[in-house]
Amino acid sequence: MLAAVAGISRFGLGSGHLPVALLAFMALYGAVYLDRSALYSLGVQYQADTQVAPLDDNASIRVYPETRAVLTRITELVRIHGHGSFMYAGQDMPYLYFLTGLENPTRSLFDFLDTTDSARGAKLLNTLREQHVAVIAINTSPSLSPALERATLRALERQYPVHERIAGIEVRWTLDAAGSHQSHVRSPVAKP
Fold first, then answer.
1. Which letter does DSSP use for residue 15 in this model?
2. Kind of pairing, strands 59-63 and 88-90?
3. Which residue in 31, 123, 138, 143 has the fewest CB atoms around it within 10 Å?
């Protein structure tokens, strides 16, 4: 289409209205067809996009309804059990900082990019204690970064004994943050 507009303009085969009409058609096509089709089938065939649930009020991002349910529950737990301005979201979940409005106590967003190991082992445990982090979320099957070491996970389980598991993500909080809540595990929801 862009080549057609350029050719028409170059050879003077139309007034100024034809190129404008073609560009308007392309914009309308993009808004109506491309914006509503699934990304994985784009250019092959039309399939309606099933990511139709708005993520939250702060982000006009559409996600799968199951993903929204998982992230909504995680955000609720963090808001209920967290205090202060920090939470820890690891591995590969930096979006939780945005969704909860809390800060990352480490220097790492994605563990595989962190050359300082600030989100691993003793450094992580010390940072969480120093910053008085009351709630954490651990992705038990990260797609990019390696999972936390078993020794670190055991130490986190002792430091944050109360938990709820949601679709492969463990939200854990301290007993101080839990108040009179008892430890429980919910049945998993579809993985985001």
1. -
2. unpaired
3. 143
With b for 16 or more beta-carbon neighbours within 10 A and e for fewer, the 137-164 pattern comes to bbbeebeebeebeeebeebbeeebebbb
Q: For the chain, how big is the Rg over CA atoms in Å?
A: 23
Q: What are the structure tokens assigned to 107, written together? A: 């220097």
**pLDDT tens sequence across 137-183:** 999 988 888 888 899 999 999 999 999 999 999 999 998 755 544 44
Record the tokens describing residue 92, joined without a space. 């590969």
pTM of the full predicted structure?
0.68
Give the whole-angstrom CA distance, residue 96 versus residue 19.
Answer: 45
DSSP 128-164: HHHTT--EEEEESS-SSSPPPPHHHHHHHHHHS-EEE
Place of tokens 């691993």: 120
First to last CA, the chain: 37
